[in-house]
Every structure is written in C-alpha cells, then in structure tokens.
Amino acid sequence: MVLLGKIALGFGATVLMAGAYTFHEGVIRVDVDESHGNGSHVHVWAPAALVPMAIHFVPRRQLERAGDRAAEFMPLVHSVAKELQKYPEAELVDVRDGAEHVHIRTHNGVLLIDAEEPGQTVHVACPLETIDDVSRELAEFAPGA
Amino acid sequence: MINHTRRVFPVIAFLAAACLFGPLGIQAQTSSSQSSTSSQGEKWLHVRVISTDSKGETVRVNVPLELAEKVLPAIDHDRFHGGKVRIGCMDCDGVDVRTLFEAVRGAKDGQFVTVQSKNADISVAKKDGQFLVHVHDKDKPKFSQVEVKVPMKVVEALLSGGKDELDIVAGLHALASQNDVELVSVKDEDNTIRVWMDSKNVAD
Known about the structure:
The structure holds two protein chains of two kinds.
Chain A: H1 2-23, E1 27-34, E2 41-47, H2 50-55, H3 60-70, H4 74-84, E3 90-97, E4 100-107, E5 110-117, E6 120-127, H5 128-141
Antiparallel strand pairs in A: 1-2, 1-6, 3-4, 4-5, 5-6
Helix pairs in contact in A: 3-5, 4-5
Chain B: H1 2-33, E1 44-51, E2 58-64, H2 65-71, E3 76-77, E4 80-81, E5 84-86, E6 91-92, E7 95-96, H3 97-106, E8 110-116, E9 120-127, E10 130-137, E11 144-151, H4 152-158, E12 165-167, H5 168-176, E13 181-188, E14 191-198
Antiparallel strand pairs in B: 1-2, 1-14, 3-4, 4-5, 5-12, 6-7, 8-9, 9-10, 10-11, 11-13, 13-14
C-alpha cells in the first residue's frame, strides 16, 4: 500500500512537473469560425513549448522547403518577434470598418490577433518567444542563412 | 510512513502548482504594474484615423519607435531596402528638393511661402527648429485643413541618405530624441487623421 502510494506520488509529481514545463511558455491558439452555410470551424490549441521541440522531428527536406519559401520574410518575422518581446503589453493595431474589426496586440508576452467580419471570425494567440524560436529555427534552413 | 507521505504530498503538489502557475502570476503582476505611460522614455508613434461617415471607420496604430528602427532594416522589398526608401521624385518638376531644403535649413526662422487664393491658403514656414506646412483647402465643397509639423533634425536625418532616397530609420532615430510632437493633422468634414509621437503606449 505504501509502495503504491509512493509510486502514485512519484507519477503524479512527474505529470505535474511535465505539465508545468509544457505549459510554462503558454499555449498557441488558433480559432477560425465561419458561421455561413457549411462554414468550417477550426480550433487548434497546442502547448507553445512543444513547437520548437517538434521542429526537430520534422524531416530535413520539409524544413528546407519551408525555409526556402519563408526565406524572404523570416528575417522580418524574427526581428519583429524579438523586438516585440520588449513590449509584452501593447495595443498595436485596431481597425474598425463597419462590422469588420482587426485587432493586433500583445498581452502577457503573447501576440493576439483577432479578426472579425460578418460570417467569419479568426482568433490567433501565439507567445512571442515561440515565434522567435520558430523563425530562428526556420532561418537556419533558409538559403543563404 | 503513510503519515509522512501525507505530509509531503501537499508540499510537492504546492511546488508543482507554483511551477505551473508561477510564470503566469509573474506575467500578470508585470502586466498589471504597466501603465499607459511607457517606461524609460520609450517613444511611440501613433496614427489615428477617424471617419464620421456611415461606416464609422477608425484606424488606430501604435508603434514603438525603437521597434520600428530595429525592424525596418530587415525589410527588403521593392523600393525599400536597409531602412531606406528610394523615391524617384526628389527632383520634382525641375525643383531639387534636397537643395531647397538645404537652403531652408540655413535660413532664419520665418514664413517662406504664403499663398492666399480663393481656393486655398498655403504656408510653409520654419519656426523654433520645426518645419511647418499649413494647407487650408477652400475649393472643395467640404473644407479640409492640413497641418504638418516636422522637427528640422528629422527632415535632415530623412535626407541624410543617398540622393534619391529617404533614410527612414535615421528619421525615426532623430524623431525619438525629440519631445512629444504632433506631426500630421488632417481634418475635413468626414475624416480626422492624426500622426503624433509621445511616451504613451496606447492611443487616447
């Protein structure tokens, strides 16, 4: 009984620690909702800490292709993500035009993009640190990096 | 032993919970302590467009100058390269803008251009280190008023690049060293446009 308790305790603590590490960088969230006809609903939630790790398991050829396609923009994305980390709380862009609304801001070091128009809403949340990490990883596979 | 386990478990659970939620707590504290005034003299460039038409379009853009200075050199697209934009009309209709500006820079404060007509009033002046342009368009059925105020140091920095280019990064760097300033103000019956710089990280 005591041994079982110890095992349960060890397992529980390990799970908690693993959970703490997994979520310490926050969560990447992508929500796309189309309310018209056969509109699609996409909801993706992923621990941000796992993304840079997951890149190491992507086949090199795929990464090279992604790096090649994103080569033009990666220095810009990397630069923006790196600099935005200095502004964890900032209202950057807010555009309203009738029923359309685009809002880009940072909150708690997370880049939040909300876009709404009649029949469609898109919400994206991604920790700036993760964008920085991923852009750095991809830049290594970009030609001329 | 069971008692020992019972005593230790809450401690481990607490530590794990602290690890899990600790960073969030720290971030929350950081965010709550941040006010609308940015720290250590950070300068923000604000753009606000408010339209009073039926749609009521509004645009609010807030950009930290330091961020813009760091990010712009990373853009390499079309006429924009290395924080400089290549423009083809520096020699506009035979008027060498650079030489014209050099002349204005060396001149004392004063009103250099004054046009008053039935259609519009235009004035270009230099005062207290500021380059001022005022346009009051009376021709349209709807009036419009444009005020541009740019510190001379910023204009100098903008023109510090090559012959046919504006050095945007140098301009922003020079702007960051200035006090709060309203750079552009456009008002007509339907729209209000403001571009200004201050130390607040949110627009009003």
